[in-house]
Design brief:
Blueprint: H1 8-16, E1 17-24, H2 33-44, E2 50-58, H3 60-71, E3 79-83, E4 97-104, H4 106-116, H5 120-135, H6 143-159
Parallel strand pairs: 1-2, 2-4
Antiparallel strand pairs: 3-4
C-alpha cells in the first residue's frame, strides 16, 4: 500500500498561524476559508513567528454597527482591523506574535469590485492583505506611510498572482 507524502512545512505553518474563520454573511459565492488563510499568511509570514487572527464576514447592518461603534463612522466599510496590541503593552507570552480581528463585509467588497472592474477574488485578496497589514502596524493616514503600505500590498498581490490593486491610480 502506498503511503501519503508527509509535508512538514504544512504542519509548521499551522503551528505558526491560526485563522479563526466565521462566515456570518448571507452573501453567496465567497472565497473559501482556505483562500482567506492563504492571503493573510502571505502578509504576515515573514514578520511573525506566530499569529492568531479571527476573520469574520458580516452583512452590512452588522458591519455598519462595528464601524459606527469603533470608528464613529455610520456606514458599512469593506474591512475593519482590530489589533490586540493596539496601544497596549502585552504580557510576554504575546510579545512575539500577531493577534487581532478582521471584519470584512462581503456586500461592500462585491459592490466595490464591480465598480472598480476587479474580480471579487482579487478584491477579497487585496482587502484581506490590507487588513492584515493594518494588524501588523501599517497605516495609510500620512503620505509616506501610505506609500510604504501600498508598495507592500502591490508586492504581495503580485506574488499571489493578482494585478496591482492600485493600477488605475497610476495613469
Amino acid at each position: 500500500m502506498k503511503r501519503a507524502k508527509q509535508y512538514p512545512f504544512l504542519s509548521l505553518q499551522r503551528q505558526r498561524f491560526h485563522l479563526n474563520f466565521e462566515n456570518a454573511s448571507s452573501a453567496a459565492d465567497l472565497p473559501s476559508e482556505r483562500d482567506f488563510y492563504r492571503w493573510a499568511w502571505s502578509a504576515l509570514k515573514n514578520e511573525y513567528r506566530c499569529a492568531d487572527i479571527s476573520l469574520i464576514l458580516l452583512d452590512e447592518e452588522e458591519a455598519r454597527a462595528y464601524n459606527r461603534d469603533y470608528r464613529g463612522k455610520d456606514y458599512a466599510t469593506n474591512v475593519l482591523s482590530f489589533a490586540l496590541n493596539e496601544g497596549e503593552i502585552l504580557p510576554d507570552q504575546f510579545s512575539d506574535g500577531l493577534y487581532g480581528d478582521l471584519v470584512i463585509c462581503p456586500q461592500v467588497v462585491l459592490k466595490e469590485a464591480a465598480e472598480q472592474g476587479k474580480t471579487p477574488e482579487q478584491h477579497f485578496a487585496h482587502l484581506t492583505i490590507h487588513g492584515t497589514l493594518h494588524l501588523m502596524g501599517y497605516d495609510h493616514i500620512e503620505d509616506d506611510e501610505a506609500e510604504i503600505m501600498e508598495a507592500e500590498e502591490i508586492r504581495l498581490m503580485l506574488a499571489a498572482g493578482f494585478p496591482n490593486p492600485y493600477q488605475e491610480d497610476e495613469y
